Please model this.
Amino acid sequence: MRRLSIRSLGAALALLLAVAARSQADPVNWQYNATPGAPSVFSDNGADVDSRVAFSNEGEVQRTGDSFITASNLTTFSLQAFGTKAQFTGRAFTFTVALRDGWDLVNPNGLATGILTFHGHIDGQVWKTGSQLTYTITDPTQEITVGDHVYHVEFDDGARRINGPDAQRQTSIDGSVTIRDVDGGNGGGPHDSPEPGTAVLAGFGLVGLVGMGYRRWKAAR
Model:
């Protein structure tokens, strides 16, 4: 009976160490492509084709696990003088985010793909050397199931400033993506399981129990 107990403890130790080895799940490889609904949004004055906010398409971008994403970089243009600023009043824009479960830059459409559409508007003024523009996304939080994973996409929910034509850096529409398995596990990081340090400490405890049981068994013999 003691020998069986020792074997049982050994089996439990092996199982615990295996669980510890698997406690960090492999993160998900995925990629995305954010595409603007239109390349530019123009001012309220339809005749003013120079005053606009241009949206970039960054192409296919690969990521691993939970990550930040850039939906677009915004560039402003205007020939208006300071005293005749171009006005933007609720100028609508859209962009889509295609989420692909896996990596394939050669044939991305061959991957399981889900597409989310985001809506927003631009408000404020722009002129040749500056701007008082903001963009607001009206549906900033969305999620979709793609393949075996649920992708949760989130952008800022408030008004964000857009840099003017004289700025040295563009304004980017940045968000975050968190991933979980369809069955509820965390696809972007560790699954719900013992922390490695906790599992290892427990393993050392079992080693001690096995050793103690063996010594008692040997003494009884």
Q: What stands out?
A: The helical segments are 2-21, 196-220. DSSP finds two helices and 13 strands in the chain.
